[in-house]
Amino acid sequence: MSKVHLVRSGLDELLAGLQEGDPVPAERDLAVRFAVARDTVRQALHELLLEGRVQRRGRGTVVAKPKLVQPLSLKSYTEGAEQMGRKPGRILVAWEEVAATADLSAGLDVGLGLPVMHLERVLLADNERIGLESTYLPLPRFARLYDTFDPETSLYAAIRATGVQFASALERIETILPTPREAGLLLTTTAMPMLHLHRRSLDSEGRPIEVVRALYRGDRVAFQTVLVDGA
């Protein structure tokens, strides 16, 4: 077993005896405890950081909150966060009209180059930045949102309030690294793996509702779904 794995095993035992928010001993103290170089401790702590088990706070490291587990369903981010007892929130980054690219034209069934509504928001859980969401909506269908929607609240609730019901969605999740801008908005680094979610939602008549591109911090969010045997 490598020295990093030995340190990881020791840290696993150490973390099992700590509570959320408790400080993790300093690198130099851990190096002495496990009789290894500080670089070895730093590598083990970095692995725990990427897994979301610890997080940086100031110059130190503390035990992290459990990851926010989001359901893979047509529920909104708000509903998923509240189910875990977390307080959802949002910071508005942009709310604008943009010209439909080829992908947006196909995804939203609008003419190429025609304006679509773009809403970009940082997603919060208990005031912690965990995601960055860009939603594109067909403008003629949802222009009224400019007068009725508070961008710090649930977009799905606002859409449903217009009488539109979500019926189905195609969703794809991949792992990517953020751009410097995205990392800055999420208060992390470009080395932090992100869960990249792409979704296209339809109503009961098969009409497009939205195209969404969202990034979630891999150390703070996980996704789950229920699988049922369809045989």
From TrEMBL:
It comes from the Bacteria. InterPro entries: Bact_HTH_transcr_reg, Chorismate_lyase_/UTRA_dom_sf, Tscrpt_reg_HTH_GntR, UTRA, WH-like_DNA-bd_sf, WH_DNA-bd_sf. Keywords: DNA-binding, Transcription, Transcription regulation. Residues 1-66 form the HTH gntR-type domain. GO terms for biological process: negative regulation of DNA-templated transcription. PROSITE patterns: HTH_GNTR. SUPFAM superfamilies: Chorismate lyase-like, Winged helix' DNA-binding domain. Signal peptide: none annotated. This is GntR family transcriptional regulator. It holds the Pfam family GntR. One of its GO terms (molecular function) is DNA binding. Gene3D superfamilies: Chorismate lyase-like, Winged helix-like DNA-binding domain superfamily/Winged helix DNA-binding domain.
